[in-house]
From TrEMBL:
Similarity-based family: Belongs to the peptidase A22B family.
Pfam families recorded: PA, Peptidase_A22B
InterPro entries: PA_dom_sf, PA_domain, Peptidase_A22B_SPP, Preselin/SPP
Domain PA: 123-194
GO biological process per UniProt: membrane protein proteolysis
Primary role: Intramembrane-cleaving aspartic protease (I-CLiP) that cleaves type II membrane signal peptides in the hydrophobic plane of the membrane.
Compartments, record wording: Endosome membrane
Bilayer-spanning residue ranges: 220-239, 282-300, 306-329, 350-368, 374-394, 401-419, 461-480, 492-515, 521-539
Main location class: membrane
Cross-referenced SMART domains: PSN
UniProtKB keywords: Endosome, Glycoprotein, Hydrolase, Membrane, Protease, Signal, Transmembrane, Transmembrane helix
GO cellular component: cytoplasmic side of endoplasmic reticulum membrane; endosome membrane; Golgi-associated vesicle membrane; lumenal side of endoplasmic reticulum membrane; lysosomal membrane
Protein name: PA domain-containing protein
Length: 562
């Protein structure tokens, strides 16, 4: 089978075995329905999905957009159709390297009847009248240029080649430069061909309109995704400032010792849940994540994607519950006073139970409607709440551990995107993220935003790991500034936030300069965050303090008397 990337294997399409399986049915166009199960191919520009659990870590990569047409070099085409004058579904296609160009706007194209060639592979002169029509034919049997030449000789105004799978690739031929083909040639997916075929065999009139709208260089969805990513890190870093009791509450706590005791108990419980990452744990984590990624590459299935969806919902529920309760109780202390006895949990706040019920309902609704066009809203809300909570519970003690973790993640990202194809013949990270064996289910551990001004639709995305890993360092910078009484200008937090934002800009700039080819986002984000910290530390003479912070009491606070 040819590669969907239009490799050298696509030069001549002589697939005798596959073609015989499709053409040999002997029922003309109806034999098109024979074949395997469709495999929807999704082109992620790899998103690093490492959270702090191994299951969420295995999908790595960079930020991206998703589209129906996967990794193609040809020009994307819109295939509008009308059935007995009633407008039908719009299909996607891709042009061949040979043939005429299509107009960019539908008003500049012509609505033309569609008819199947006979034979259906169009590898010889057609006995059906093709004059003034768009010829439909199935893939296989002969070169693409041979099909186009016979269709053109029959008077067809264009040709649609129906692939035998759900992916698309550019049709090329070794002698395409010599071919004298003046009609547009477009490939469409198997399911699109089946839809047109079903209408034709039922005796209905099918009309086709072809045009190739250009994809915008930049979509505004990137700006919204940038704001969500930077905003998540800023909110997570400042969250303790938002939710910690005010100093003015001390007198109130003296008058209400019961509530003060409850608040102190809650803070103690939260402190016990905090995980302080060390260098050894960072290395083991990345090695385990790599092992898990390889297992997913070989054994990925739809049921496992469902496991990830369930885990995402559980994490999202906990994160959303934590965010709502902590913010609400901070502003209204009376919310948490009324309690009820719950089996297995003991005395529990009624308000907390109500919020939990709301969060569970929200997550279940998202899971049930995750295929809808608006599902990205719920997914982003759950994901942001989850990441804010993770960044509260997981902490870097100093720059030494941050260097180990981020450098390991840096190498991890680059290896599984760029180097793994040498070993596994394809990018393991992109293959797993694409979900070829997942039955069309998308991986939920990422933020996404629809491409509003792109005629091809799709989403721009960024994985949780591309927010969490730099976010751990930014959160540490805020704690360091707060402990040492630093302001915005002489601290590290503001500069790291700026560095992270610039790193995201570089990520998308690299994405566009490389024509959408997958790239590891941490390739840009790590130098723009960890690099900024090290450079500032060297300039200010504080690198030793940052490197050993928390291990040497004499370095934990500023002791200069200047």
């Amino acid at each position: 089978m040819p590669s969907s990337r239009g490799s050298a294997g696509d030069v001549v399409d002589n697939e005798s075995a596959d073609s015989a399986a499709v053409v040999g049915g002997g029922n003309g166009a109806e034999s098109l329905l024979a074949g395997g199960v469709p495999n929807l191919s999704l082109d992620f520009l790899g998103v690093d999905l490492q959270a702090l659990s191994l299951e969420l870590d295995a999908y790595g990569g960079l930020g991206v957009h998703i589209e129906l047409v996967a990794s193609i070099a040809g020009k994307e085409v819109k295939v509008e159709n009308w059935i007995d004058g009633v407008e039908g579904r719009i299909y996607n296609g891709v042009t061949a390297r040979f043939g005429s160009l299509l107009p960019e706007k539908p008003e500049n194209s012509v609505r033309t009847p569609a008819i199947f060639s006979n034979p259906v592979d169009c590898c010889s002169n057609s006995t059906s009248k093709l004059s003034g029509s768009v010829a439909l034919c199935i893939r296989g049997g002969c070169d693409f240029t041979v099909k186009a030449e016979f269709a053109q000789a029959g008077g067809a105004t264009g040709m649609l080649v129906i692939n035998d799978a759900e992916d698309l690739f550019e049709m090329v031929c070794s002698n395409s430069s010599e071919a004298n083909i003046s009609i547009p040639v477009v490939m469409i997916t198997k399911s699109a061909g089946e839809g047109l075929n079903n209408s034709l065999i039922s005796g209905r009139k099918v009309e086709i309109l072809l045009y190739a709208p250009p994809r915008p260089l930049v979509d505004f969805s990137v700006a919204f995704l940038w704001l969500m990513s930077v905003g998540t890190i800023v909110c997570a870093s400042l969250w303790s400032d938002f939710t910690s009791p005010e100093k003015s509450d001390e007198r109130y706590n003296e008058l209400c010792p019961k509530e003060s005791s409850i608040a102190e108990t809650a803070r103690d419980d939260f402190d016990k849940e905090i995980v302080h990452i060390d260098s050894k744990g960072a290395i083991i984590f990345v090695i385990a994540a790599s092992t898990f990624l390889v297992l997913l590459f070989f054994f990925m299935s739809s049921w496992f994607v469902w496991v990830l969806i369930v885990l995402f919902c559980i994490g999202g529920i906990e994160g959303m519950h934590n965010c709502i309760v902590s913010l609400t109780v901070r502003k209204g202390r009376s919310c948490g006073q009324k309690t009820v006895s719950v089996p297995l949990f003991g005395e529990t706040s009624i308000f907390s139970l109500v919020v939990l019920l709301f969060c569970v309902t929200f997550a279940v609704f998202w899971a049930a409607t995750r295929q809808e066009s608006y599902s990205w809203i719920g997914q982003d809300i759950l994901g942001i709440c989850l990441m804010i909570t993770v960044l509260q519970l997981a902490r870097l003690p100093n720059i030494k551990v941050a260097t180990v973790l981020l450098c390991c993640a840096f190498v991890y990202d680059i290896f599984w995107v760029f180097i793994s194809p040498v070993i596994f013949h394809e990018s393991v990270m992109i293959a797993v993220a694409r979900g070829d064996k997942a039955g069309g289910e998308a991986i939920p551990m990422l933020l996404r935003f629809p491409r509003l001004f792109d005629p091809w639709g799709g989403y721009d995305m960024i994985g949780f790991g591309d927010i969490l890993f730099p976010g751990l360092l930014v959160s540490f910078a805020h704690r360091f500034d707060k402990d040492n009484g630093r302001g915005a200008s002489n601290g590290y937090f503001l500069w790291l936030v700026i560095g992270y934002g610039i790193g995201l800009v570089f990520t998308y700039l690299g994405l566009y300069l490389m024509n959408g080819n997958g790239q590891p986002a941490l390739l840009y984000l790590v130098p723009c965050t960890l690099g900024v910290t090290v450079i500032l530390g060297c300039i200010r003479g504080e690198l030793k303090n940052l490197w050993n912070y928390g291990t040497d009491p004499s370095l934990s606070t500023e002791h200069s008397e200047v």
